[in-house]
């Protein structure tokens, strides 16, 4: 049985409401830990907490294929107190959030972007409840 060398970090991040974390890997080619979050339905609020928690430097967004409807937001920076370099990869599939990321990623105003993404989490939840009632 192989132990996950990042199990303690994953448990800490999940307990700190910075997850759910699906994986952590050290990417030697960029000298950074990549933390990939799972699709949770509240990625906007989680992204906002990450921007408040980490020393964010910048963000990028991308798709694996041009035909992908979803987008992955990558928050790049450092853990607090001059900690190691990290990239937090957050998947978004909500069309409103994807459009917002596409529209605003170049501006690099991460606090505004993640605050709007968190607002759209609530809209998506309300839309889901409404559609189930109808």
Proportion of strand residues: 25-35%
Structural class: alpha+beta
Catalogue the unreliable spans: none
Morphology call: globular
- What radius of gyration results from the CA coordinates? 15 Å
- The helicity comes to 40-55%
CA distance, first residue to last residue:
48 Å
Q: Provide the residue-averaged pLDDT.
A: 88
Count of alpha and pi helical runs: 4
* Biggest beta sheet summary: 5 strands, mixed
Element-level helix/strand string: HEEHEEEHH
Biggest sheet strand order reads 1-2-5-4-3
Count of DSSP strands: 5
List keywords for this structure.
five-stranded mixed sheet, alpha+beta, 134 residues
Please tell me about this protein's structure.
The longest helix is centred in the C-terminal third of the chain and has 24 residues, at 110-133. A hairpin with a 4-residue loop joins strand 1 (21-27) and strand 2. Strands 1-2-5-4-3 form a five-stranded mixed beta sheet, covered by helices on one side. It is built from four helices and five strands, in the order H-E-E-H-E-E-E-H-H. Helix 2 (43-53) runs antiparallel to helix 4 and helix 3 (95-104) packs antiparallel against helix 4 (110-133). Helix content is 40%, strand content 28%. With 134 residues, the protein is α+β, with helices and mostly antiparallel strands. The relative contact order is 0.16. The chain is globular and about 50 Å long.
